[in-house]
Design a protein that fits this description.
It is built from five helices and six strands, in the order ααααββββββα. By secondary structure, it is an alpha+beta fold. The chain has a six-stranded antiparallel sheet with strand order 4-3-2-1-5-6. The longest helix has 18 residues. It is elongated.
Length: 182
């Protein structure tokens, strides 16, 4: 190496920072301490949504019905006899029906017609109701018409238009259309 070039190199590097083999520090991968929920397969394996036969009694769900009645009365601002039926219907479209006493008014399958009970579970395509005879009935929403009675107001629900989960239905905007026959 020539002395002149060495001198140039040292003068060039005297006040400079030189990094040799720099590696960026790694970020800590912290695991979230929040517990994760179960997936659908785990819920089915644990039978989370199945009601045990000893718990399938009508009397056990009567307090749920009283809570539901109070919920709907509060939702509809008191449900006075002077209330507009369209107003009540609009409120009931987005309401939660767990605990409601529902009756199957019409259905393509005649064995479902007349079934009355407290709604204990609502899924996307079916209602599970418990009858006064302590029988758990699974009734499909499609091609069925249900009646719900609250303080003298009888509201008919077309199951084919109602095929959603309760959480999805509460956020949905319903379009006004004529009713359809089965």
């Amino acid at each position: 190496m020539k002395p002149n070039s060495y001198h140039n190199l040292t003068t060039m590097l005297t006040h400079k920072a030189v990094v040799l083999g720099y590696a960026r520090p790694k970020k800590d991968k912290r695991k979230s301490k929040r517990a994760k929920g179960l997936n659908a397969r785990q819920k089915r394996a644990m039978k989370v949504f199945q009601i045990k036969p000893e718990h399938q009694r009508y009397e056990l769900f009567l307090p749920l019905h009283e809570l539901w009645r109070q919920y709907v009365i509060d939702l509809c601002n008191g449900l006075k006899p002077t209330c507009n039926p369209q107003f009540v219907q609009q409120k009931l479209l987005k309401a939660d029906f767990h605990g409601a006493i529902i009756t199957v008014v019409r259905s393509k399958c005649p064995s479902y017609v007349g079934a009355t009970g407290i709604l204990i579970q609502e899924f996307k395509h079916v209602f599970k109701i418990i009858t006064k005879e302590d029988k758990l009935k699974v009734i499909p929403k499609r091609n069925s018409v249900f009646a719900v009675e609250v303080n003298g107001f009888v509201s008919h629900i077309y199951g084919s238009k109602f095929e959603q989960r309760a959480s999805e239905r509460s956020a949905k905007k319903f379009k006004v259309r004529g009713t359809i026959d089965l």
